């Protein structure tokens, strides 16, 4: 098979007819995020508080998997209107009141997702799976786009770097002076995807939650990696694994940027354990309190999920 640009192979591997995100088991069959299980219940509580703070009554979850976070939101905040967006048909297990839009996948959003009002749009680990150009610096210090064999994963850094990608790098991730073998995941596609999402909101707040880096912490070797069955695997775009790369979060259109740890603390979430007396008077409530405290600790761990970035953009038209 002839090698193709990484962004093309990546798109097909995740969102093509037989792509990874269309598999029956869904993403949760391979990895756990802050949106799943007990963590998702606490994150839903936090997002409900964020919706209240921002003065909105509708939450849209872009790249929502099988709607796990929406289910948790519905359980704790049945007053909120909820909409999920993903590449699969609406899961039958979702509560009847949860709306669903099917997406083409990647940066492309559904046509019906527009003119959003009174809304909190959540893009949780969406941008890291928007395929982007991968560039590598050769032994002479010259940059080339990386091509990949979609079946085997073999790479060759022989493609030309487009003027647009080169301009993005010059502004945000300079290629001059990088050591041979250095790799850059060009964030232009992510910036454009985020900008498109922002343009679809008339009044409300958008939140991107992702692992990422800023200009001072760009990774010299890049971050493109695969995940399968809970394990990190080589990035091979054959449709059998997730493919993800960290986001240049400082290049996104934004009003605020903070870590998940600080964001959740600002929303009033604490990991305080329940009063020990509750273990005697109401053991189930005590155990639930311990589980919640454990989930908060995991979500705010600065060396783990607490280190994720929260990027907020507010839109007020008219």
TrEMBL record:
GO molecular function: methyltransferase activity
Gene3D superfamilies per the UniProt record, alphabetical: 3.40.50.12710
InterPro entries given in the database record: NDUFAF7, NDUFAF7_sf, SAM-dependent_MTases_sf
Organism superkingdom: Bacteria
Signal peptide residue numbers: none
One Pfam family in the UniProt entry: Methyltransf_28
Sorted UniProt keywords: Methyltransferase, Transferase
GO biological process, one term: methylation
Keyword Methyltransferase found: yes
Protein name: SAM-dependent methyltransferase
Organism: Phycicoccus sonneratiae
